[in-house]
Amino acid sequence: MTALTERALDGARVLVTGGAGFVGSWLCERLLDEGAAVWCVDSFLTGSPDKVAHLRDRPDFTLVEADVSDGVPDPGGLDVVMHLACPASPVHYLRRPLETLRVGSVGTAHCLDLAERHGARFVLASTSEVYGDPLEHPQRESYWGHVNPIGPRSVYDEGKRFAEATTAAYRRERGVDTGIARIFNTFGPRMSLDDGRVVPAFVHQALLGEPLTVAGDGSQTRSLCWVEDTVDGLVRLACADEPGPVNLGNDTETTVLELARTIIGLVGSSSTIEFVPLPEDDPKVRQPDISRARERLGWRPLTDVDEGLKQTVRWMHELVGPDGAAPRA
Ligand code: NAD
Ligand code: UDP
Question: Where is the NAD(P)-binding domain (predicted)?
């Protein structure tokens, strides 16, 4: 892998929105390890202070409760603003459609204003969902996507597309130094057990010995990336002079049914498989083309998916305990 930084994070002042969420908590930790001072701004809409409790005593870490759709607190002297705040699980954003649209639109503009004020680099955590139910496979950054603009998932997909458009406009019109990451399905410890995403849902069901709820016939595909790999891509993008968009994901593609069988095997569970209705507009395939991230960021995922799943199973097993009673993670 090539050298990590065109600019150094050691001593940098970085604000992370959504820092008390799943990906954000790993990102804050990595930034602190790189020597940055980190302001973690979160409304705890879908995240929790528990996810960053292990960082609380680190002197360069500050946790601030705020809804970035109302405005972003300004600690002063920022070098980088990383905007991750947004419900990311379909269960969460379908339950909170207006908040999701607001944080993608108004929230993103507030974060860009903050970056502009400080001459800071701005990184947007966008998503593979901008490709919708894709007609091109695997998905390259040049693909414009296939999104139903009024379907239930549109609050997330179009919110992120609006966020990308806003980011591109601030770059063009105001010269803000921006980078857009299109993150593909990411998994690992500290996902909320109740957020409905496929990995925590299946692992939890397998640990409880309950049927794994496979949507549709399970032939739809996803490509799962270990969280520390995704975070490494975000950090590289923060340090690079690269506007993106850049796909960040693991290009190992699997069907949801295969994933269910793998997880049952890894847990050693007696769970069966139950087929449940496919959610509306659920993408049929998803796999990143990661050539751009390889070439421009020197990035590639390093963790084998099965190894990541094993670590996730171990973490969740410890969390839920022998009786399977799961506190909110
Ligand atoms: P998450 O739900 O665990 O984290 C999102 C965080 O944002 C939460 O802590 C939540 O409380 C916070 N938040 C939401 N709205 C807010 C607001 N208005 N103001 C302040 N904080 C707010 O989700 P995640 O999986 O960690 O995703 C993080 C980011 O990465 C999201 O922007 C998501 O769209 C993007 N992403 C994630 C994945 C993935 O597979 N995890 C894939 C693609 C894109
Ligand atoms: N899925 C499933 N059972 C579940 C949760 C999800 O079969 O309990 C499917 C879902 O329909 C989708 C895939 O797994 O096809 C990935 O879903 P997830 O919510 O993790 O993320 P998405 O890629 O849809 O944003």
Answer: 15-312
